Amino acid sequence: MWDININEPLFWPTLWYILAFLFIVFLGFRRATSRGVSNNDVGLFFLLSCFFCFSVFDVVTGDFFNFKEVVQNYDFSVGAFNHGEPIYGYIIEWCNRNYILFRLLVFGLACLLSIGAFKRFGVNLYIAVFFLFATNIRLFGYSRAILASSVFFYGLSFWCKPISKKVVSYVIGVCLILLSYQFHHSTIIYIALSPFVVIRGDKRFSILIILLIPVFSFVLKEIYSDILQFGLLDEYDDLQSKLSIYSEGLSLSYSIWGLIRSGLGTLLLYYEFYLCMRSCLKSNSKVDPSIRMLFSFVLIAIVTAIASYLVDTSVIIYYLRITRFLMIPITIIIVYLRQNSFIVDKEFRFLLLLGIALQLWDLENTIKYLI
Q1: Nearest CA among 369, 350, 338, 360 for reference residue 138
Q2: Using 50, 70 and 90 to split pLDDT, how confident is the model at 229?
């Protein structure tokens, strides 16, 4: 089977990626910001196809090529060191080291599970996929961690919105949530926080959790000291080396433009969170219980992320890992609130436009690097 032979981002594929992204956003923006969007037509099929292709063939990010080397040079000998969780070894062996087939399986499954979560929570599929595509498609196709988070949140949907046989639903949820750890060990944090989803967050709960940030910081400091000393979350890599690489990479963005970009990304995240919190707390009884439960998880996850950042601002990777892959539940909540008029069209358009602008900013930097 044919496979990818290029080893780094190239100018023309990146330019085509940008033009295709602009074309899709241009076509879909007006419809996604309209009312009464149908889920059963050619437009939805086209959008789903684009979402799938951009996720699988994200040839503009470094991680695409980094993991290509891992897949094509995977060492199956006993005791050999390989990057990534053991389950990927089985997938790579089944794919016969073919990177295209590997991407189709891993990122294709992440797309299907994300769409499955959207459908289980009953949000408009077209708007949800477009929102995720327009604001986070580069992050969605960046790392194998997206498969782990997709498995996790699809499993969590069986807790928030159980099927008719509730016991069966809860068992399915537990199995999927635990399985997510096998696809990326960073989901151990999400797994630890998952019991909070049973709390249908109200104003008192939210205020209490926010006030407990100093307590979370103290607890996380003790946990992180063990992680940094013994590498408990990553038994296959030298965690200290990994953290230094991440920190080194992040320090490259500490120019004035890098800080502005980071600030706008933070603005997008916390404005989304503000809209979720305002609507879920102000209209608590009117919001669907499953959405309130999902919001409780997002709340405790963001509070934990802030607490982890306060522990040691030089080790920001934990904060990024927790917040970046909240894109799936935040998309579900935002789209639900929008289609039920808890947030107005201007607020929704602002989120979309800011997300699109940030995507284009990152792509422009990639183009500048390649010229």
Answers
A1: 360
A2: very low
Nearest to 54 by CA among 135, 124, 116, 122: 135
∠ Cα 320 325 328 (to 5°) = 155
Q: Determine contact, residues 51/137, Cβ cutoff 8 Å.
A: yes
Show the DSSP H helices in 33-185 as ranges: 42-56, 62-72, 86-94, 99-120, 125-140, 145-160, 166-183
Cα–Cα separations (whole angstroms), residue 158 to 214, 226, 299? 32, 33, 19
Residue 18 in tokens: 């940008």
What φ, ψ does residue 54 adopt, rounded to 5°?
-65, -35
What pLDDT, on the 0 to 100 scale, is given for residue 326? 94
Three-state DSSP class for 59?
A: coil
Q: pTM of the predicted model, to two decimals?
A: 0.90
Buried b or exposed e, range 296-319, using 16+ CB within 10 angstroms: bbbbbbbbbbbbbbbbbeebbbbb
Structure tokens belonging to residue 211: 């006030």
Note whether 159 and 173 are within 8 A (CB).
yes
Residue 295: what pLDDT? 93
**What is the rounded distance in angstroms from the CA atom of residue 184 to the CA atom of residue 44?**
30
Residue 152 CA to residue 297 CA, distance in Å, equals 12
CA-only gyration radius of the chain, Å = 20
**Tens digits of residue pLDDT in 178-221:** 999 999 988 988 998 999 888 766 677 778 888 877 777 777 66
Backbone angles phi, psi at 309, to 5 degrees: -70, -40
Which residues fall within 8 angstroms of residue 180, CB to CB, at 6 or more apart?
148, 149, 151, 152, 155, 187, 190, 191
